[in-house]
Amino acid sequence: MEHRDVSTVAHRFKQTFCEGVLNTLGKTVRFCHRVREITPYRLALGLIEVFATLRVESIADAHRAFNALCDTAVQYKPFHNQLAKSTFPVFMRSLCEHLMTRLTSEVLRFSAGSPFARFTHITIHDGTSFAVKSTLKKTFPGRFTKISPAAVELHVSMALLSEGIDSVTLTPGSESEVHHVPAAQTLSGGLFLGDRAFFIKEYLCEIAACGGYFIVKAKGTLNPTVLHTYTTDGQEIKRFRNQPLKTLKSKVSRYQALDLDVVWEGELEARLIVTWNTQEKRPRYLLTNLPRPEFTPEQICDAYRLRWQVELMFKEWKSYANLHAFDTSKSNITEGLLWAALCASLLKRYCAHMAQRLWQVPISTRKVAMCLHHVLSQIFRTLLHCQRQLNHTLQRALKYLSHNAQRAHPKRDRKSGRLKLGLEHVYATP
Questions:
Q1: Per-residue pLDDT for 281 more than 90?
Q2: Lower CB count within 10 Å: N or C terminus of the chain?
Q3: Per-residue model confidence (pLDDT) at position 280
């Protein structure tokens, strides 16, 4: 790793966490009017640092960490008052969007021989919900009122090739995820991966009309008309022509996989990959508009498994970035702290990606989420108090990650994991 590579990362850090930029952001959303001791810049760094390094249960935890990082002695009341402002969640959401834009780079790329190399972007969309303090049930009503009367839902579009976030929306847990899918026109030239909640025929038609592609898990109750049925070796089973799908369901277990052309008259025509789930003893359906000559049923099934990357990210959020219920009954504070947790997670992923690119080793974002706290506090102290040492501090931190957060089974990744379809790690100057 060359010195100039670390300098590039340090320059990105300085631009992203620039005091003038973050203070201006706070003023723009009317979070502050006059710059005092708890500036937007200091508060942003203080919250991200504590959420990325410690288990935060209460505002007092964040308050003590803020004073330690900033070498100050702010009392609890004025600190609490800043978080209680109605514009606090607006500021933290804007900060999160700022980090989503700045802390991103390509970390995965399909090899030229992969049919998936044609896509400019691959979007995975899903949602994750979790309970918040039950006293917030009027502001954040949950979907399961007896178990979690108060809950929130995060609707997330993940970019597979950068392992970053394109968009995230926070809503009450009772709000349906289907209202927050990415706009069809943004998927032009790309591939959309979604679970059965996004089996929405009108939406899938829009994606295709905009020049996009999709692989979506279909519901078991679907019953389109089957136009053509092919086995994995390309042979057509002619007796299944123009039959309702339900007439085939009892025969699916006889085949390794079936590749169908199906139609819902007046709604959607697509390709349906049917495989038999031996554990649950029932068929699994994947709906796609990928062309048959270029994409085999096996490749489509392997591509859909890449959707699991967003579930792994959700697990990181909840396990290592403090995405949980906080001990506060104020909705403004709860929402703002949730955005702070997401900011911490974005920073951790960026550090993982930079360690991978600069040291040219495959890095596990989960391991980084677990161990970055050992070196992250020093990065933030350097940003606040001695930026001329930032290059050295970042080099030390990224070197630590390159030794302690490597992926455990890179060979398995290529054989049966996420690299099976021709994905490769990107090792280059950021």
A1: no
A2: N
A3: 80
| Residues composing the chain | 430
Residues 6+ apart with CB under 8 A from 210: 184, 185, 187, 188
Rounded Cα–Cα distance for residues 319 and 335 (Å)? 18
pLDDT greater at residue 360 or residue 256: 360
Residue range 9-54, pLDDT digits in tens:
999 999 999 999 999 999 999 999 877 889 999 999 999 999 999 9
Cα distance between residue 2 and residue 120, in whole Å:
30
Query: 3-class DSSP state for residue 282?
Result: strand
Residues near 102 by Cβ (< 8 Å), separated by ≥ 6?
Answer: 12, 15, 16
Q: Which residues contact 158 (CB under 8 A, 6 or more apart)?
A: 123, 124, 125, 126, 164, 165, 166, 309, 310, 313
Q: What is the pTM of this model?
A: 0.94
Strand, helix or coil at 155? Answer: strand
Residue 353 CA, chain-centre distance (Å), reads: 14
| 145, pLDDT greater than 80 | no
* Strands annotated E in 68-118: 108-110
CB 397 within 8 A of CB 351: yes
pLDDT of 3 over the 60 cut: no
* Tokens at 216, concatenated: 């979506």
Q: What is the pLDDT of residue 429?
A: 65
**CA atoms of 244 and 34, how far apart (whole Å):** 68
**Residue 58: strand, helix, or coil:** coil
How much is the average pLDDT of 103-128? Answer: 95
Q: How confident is the model at residue 252 (pLDDT cuts 50, 70, 90)?
A: confident
Q: Do 25 and 98 meet the contact criterion of CB atoms below 8 Å apart?
A: yes
Contacts of 411 (CB under 8 A, 6+ apart): none
The SS3 call for residue 34 is: coil
Question: Coil, strand, or helix at residue 323?
Answer: coil
Find the distance separating the first CA and the last CA of the chain, reported in whole Å. 12
Distance between CA atoms of residues 30 and 24, nearest Å: 10
Measured in degrees and rounded to the nearest 5, phi and psi for residue 97 equal: -65, -35
> Encoding tokens for residue 363?
């890095």
H helix or E strand, kind and range, residue 347: helix 331-359
- For the chain, percent of residues with pLDDT exceeding 70: 99
Domain boundaries, the chain: 3-105+327-424
Cα-based angle 123, 128, 133 (whole degrees, multiple of 5): 150
CA distances from 294 to 145, 160, 313 (A): 47, 21, 30
